[in-house]
Amino acid sequence: MADWLIVNAELVNEGRRFPADLRVRGQRIEQIGQGLAARAGEQVFDASGLWLLPGMIDDHVHFREPGYTAKGDIASESRAAVAGGVTSFIDMPNTKPAALTEALLEDKFAIASLSSLANYAFYFGASNDNLDAIRALDPRRIPGVKVFLCESTGNLFVSDPATLEGVFRDSPVTVLVHAEDSRIIHANLDRAKAEYGDDIPMRLHPEIRSREACLESTKWAVETARRHGTRLHVLHVSTADEVALFAPGPIAGKRITAETCVHFLRYTDSDYATLGGKIKCNPAIKAAADRDGLGRALADTRIDILATDHAPHLESEKAHPYTSCPSGIPLIQFALQSALEQVLDGKLTLERVVEAYAHAPATLFAIEGRGFLREGHFADLALVDPGSPQTVRRHDIVSKCGWSPFEGDTFRASIAATFVNGNLVARNGKLADAPPGMRLAFDR
Ligand SMILES: [Zn+2]
Questions:
Q1: Can you tell me the distance from the alpha carbon of 362 to that of 32, in angstroms, rounded to the nearest whole number?
Q2: Span from the CA of 8 to the centroid of ligand 1 (angstroms)
Q3: Cα–ligand 1 centroid distance for 62 (angstroms)
């Protein structure tokens, strides 16, 4: 592999922004400085006009393998990630079979070790009957356990109250929750079916998977975590109401953290009219006031982490009527660009996007050697061109499903290059052959 000297970049890291050069030797960052001279054998990457960021770490993706590989697989979706400046991902357990045993989870690591272009880890899934396996998880190898507090794609709903209490009380790894209240959702859905039969308008999705359903369930999760001292991470917060349940401050000392997703910062309920089932996801995209409140909470650190909940489905499935249209959106390839629109609109700082999408997940899970631009860390890098707009076209899409809610949209910044473990794996949207990414390790 080549060693690289990246010169003339504007480096953005740990709340600072400054002109710098960065030397990559093997898999690691060897040196960060100014006026660095190229050594014999080094390739020079001229990053004039580009922002140099740590590669993003997406702590919430559904890459669909094993079991749903018509929608996406680890090879295809990790390529989409890398094309978008995301160099590490953590994938959810609602595959087929679901990752409910240590052996099934290790099968996913084995697939990724051969086919993932990005660095990878996988969450364990909670069910009504695998509490003993959760108690035995090794926090240095497994990032967390995902708990569905309601039905969603893949049916991993933990409905038994004693098991839920047990997971919150005993899990040796971070507990991640999908928090929506099933009872409320069922009552809302029954009402909509009575009124509309099989022809429920897509715009009713945020009334069926309602803000009350989110708020009730998130309240329960936060209270239960407080009672047990659980390390809780609340996934995909979708309402401004829930924000009051979380405290601002640095992520390092927190026992309870929250995540929101790029689509909640971009879309509102008015977008169902044009995008319909394409933006159906759980929890639902809600009102403009939620979008704005979530943006403010991400800016002021009450929400700690930005992620995608990347969840591809076939375009044909997304054209189904409401009740059979699957929930989930393919996002990862354009997620950083979508977040940077918030920066260019003055709603978030660039430093805060880097913190929420790279530093914070690294800190939450104590990921070894990643998420920051530091000498000695792995050279996982994203180079962004803020002066090169990109209009999303179908032929640009790397995700296996082949469609994007962003088609036709123009992003003002584009991804100029991505490095994973010191390898240049994407440049101006073109992917290069590179060795597979590495398994994430957790220093805790
Ligand atoms: Zn998800």
A1: 20
A2: 38
A3: 6
Q: Where do we find the tokens 């390092």? A: 252
**Phi and psi for 7 in degrees, rounded to 5?**
-120, 155
CB-CB contact of 384 with 335 (8 Å): no
Residues of the chain with CATH 3.20.20.140: 55-364
Query: Could you give the CA distance from residue 418 to residue 424 in angstroms, rounded to a whole number?
Result: 6
**Nearest to 405, CA basis, from 344, 341, 353, 335:** 335
Mean pLDDT for 199-205 is 97
Centroid of ligand 1 to alpha carbon of 178 (angstroms): 7
| Class for the domain spanning 55-364 | alpha beta
Distance linking the first and last C-alpha atoms of the chain: 31
The whole-chain average pLDDT of the chain stands at 97
Summarised one tens digit per residue, pLDDT across range 16-56 is 999 999 999 999 999 999 999 999 999 999 999 999 999 99
Handedness of CA 399, 405, 409, 411 (dihedral sign): negative
- Segment 215-219 long-range contacts (CB within 8 Å, at least 24 positions apart): 215/239, 215/241, 215/242, 216/181, 216/184, 217/149, 217/150, 217/177, 217/179, 217/180, 217/181, 218/177, 218/179, 218/242, 218/245, 219/245
CA of 61 to the centre of ligand 1 (A): 6
Structure tokens at 295: 């943006």
Buried residues in 308-339 as b, exposed as e (16+ CB within 10 A): bbbbbbbeebbeeebeebbbbbbbbbbbbbbb
- Size (the chain), residues: 444
Q: Which fold has domain 4-52+372-388+410-431?
A: Urease, subunit C; domain 1 (2.30.40)
Assign 300 a pLDDT band (cuts: 50, 70, 90). Answer: very high
Rounded to whole angstroms, how far apart are CA atoms 314 and 285? 20
Region(s) of the chain under CATH 2.30.40.10: 4-52+372-388+410-431
Active site residues: 309
pTM beyond 0.90, yes or no: yes
Token output for 74: 């680890």
99 contacts 120 by C-beta, under 8 angstroms: no
How many beta carbons lie within 10 A of that of residue 248, not counting itself? 12
Q: Can you tell me the distance from the alpha carbon of 36 to that of 443, in angstroms, rounded to the nearest whole number?
A: 32
Q: Maximum CA pair distance of the chain? A: 74
